[in-house]
Amino acid sequence: MLDKFEWKKWILPLVLGLGLWLLTPIRPTAINIQAWHLFAIFIATILACITKPLPMMATTIIAIVIATLTGIFKMEEVTAGFGNSTAWMVAMCMFMAAGFIKSGLGKRIAYFFVKTFGKRTLGLAYALSMVETVLAIGIPSNNARVNGIMYPIIDNLSKEMGSDPKKGTQADMGSYLVFNEYEVNIVTSTMFLTGLAGNMVALGIAKTQNIEISWMQWFLAAIVPGIISLLVIPFVLYKIYPPKIKETPNAHAWADNKLKELGKMTLAEKIMAVVFILAVALWLIGPKFGIDATLVSFIAVALLLICGVINVKDILGQSFAWNILTWLSIIMLMSQKLMQLGFFPWFSKTLGSMLNGMNWVWVLVILYLAYFYLHYLFPSVSTQISALYAGFLSIAIGAGVPPIMAALMLALDGSLYLSTTSYSAGPAALLSSTGYVSNKDWWRLSAIIGIILNIIWLGGGLLWTKVIGMW
């Protein structure tokens, strides 16, 4: 049986793509024919990733076939593109994340923090925030952290305390903890390069414009605004969206029982913990010894395979990892070719000149805020990054923003903008449908916390990066 053909969803990508292709004779003289044709294919591909007549993986494969048949790429270039180090780093980190969930180490860490700090609801929120922070270092999927580890624990804990949407008591404690988890997940996704696949997607695109940012550079830029956000958000939500239950003395006993059910730390958990610590250490100091972030992720996965924490079946079952490996490799290949053919330099110079004379800090502020609030139009992190990041980065550089600052601030923005809608990403879709937080509250609270995050990360972030000498 054939899959349903979503022909309506093909209309906009095909009309715009073919329209741009047919405009080749009147293209700007600074752009050669190949560059213009690839631009037409690229725009059609991005639009198809938004309208989704097919999954992104299928859409990008079709695009690269068209670009090859029309002589823009040689097949050797295409096959070499699948060796992209950034795409492989994302996939390897996904495989490593499977070890966290399969071994049970993620749950053990969560129960430990709840047992230690969970005497009050606010303390419980901070404890769960610490768990999120630890997990975000090595699990680049916000879906895996929220759906696989954090939400089940928060849901069970809330119901244990008598806070249940089915009983109409969600506001007692669960509403606060669920929404706090979502916003904290955004912060931890932003704090670490490996905290969200989208971070690596953005920096992979930046690399095609000859800008490289290391794991350590990202960490240094994000650590201070990240810590401030983790301190501020639970407290602000506690004030504007307060739980009815303030004291949670039973949380300690609940977590203690859960730890007893898990029993002693298994060998798989111990190995996972050691490999995780080793990976973090190498991400921090590896570049000094010629070990880059992608190699670190390969080393971690190899060790987990050797020790039996994960197996080949676990790796093959990570469909999201293989999916992103394919479409990201193709998107970055097309972006790199547009750079080589001179399209992005022309785009940067042309649009950047429109902002000529404006202080680059204000240019960055305008682009950052526009990039953030445009996420109201996008139901996916990676779709917006694929559609807009390269263009915004080119405009920023053309207007005089230091390349590293432009690439870094827009990349950080690419996870912070999740504080917008109930469809902003997978975790939002899940948590907003649990009954703990109403749709009205979700939009209202997201808007408030979004403003706070912009103040901390844009205002405070610029000040902090100045202190550490990044500009």
Category by helix and strand content: mainly alpha
Biggest sheet, in brief? none
Distance between the termini: 58 Å
Assembly form of the protein: single chain
Tally of separate helices: 22
Average pLDDT confidence is 89
Radius of gyration: 23 Å
Helix content: over 70%
* Extended strand count: 0
Strand content: under 5%
Unreliable parts: none
What best-fitting shape do the alpha-carbon axes yield?
A: globular
How are helices and strands ordered from N to C?
A: HHHHHHHHHHHHHHHHHHHHHH
General description of the model:
This protein is an all-alpha fold. The protein has helices spanning 8-22, 33-51, 56-69, 75-81, 85-103, 105-117, 121-138, 142-160, 174-191, 197-208, 215-240, 249-262, 267-285, 293-307, 312-316, 319-340, 343-352, 360-373, 381-398, 403-416, 426-431, 439-467. It is globular. The model has no long low-confidence stretch (mean pLDDT 89). It is a multi-pass membrane protein.
Short synopsis of the structure:
This protein is mainly α.
Secondary structure: elements and pairs:
Layout lengths: L7 H15 L10 H19 L4 H14 L5 H7 L3 H19 L1 H13 L3 H18 L3 H19 L13 H18 L5 H12 L6 H26 L8 H14 L4 H19 L7 H15 L4 H5 L2 H22 L2 H10 L7 H14 L7 H18 L4 H14 L9 H6 L7 H29 L4
Helix pairs in contact: 1-2, 2-3, 2-16, 2-19, 3-16, 5-10, 5-14, 5-16, 6-7, 6-12, 7-9, 7-11, 8-9, 9-11, 9-20, 10-16, 10-19, 10-20, 11-22, 13-14, 17-19, 18-19, 18-20, 19-20, 20-22
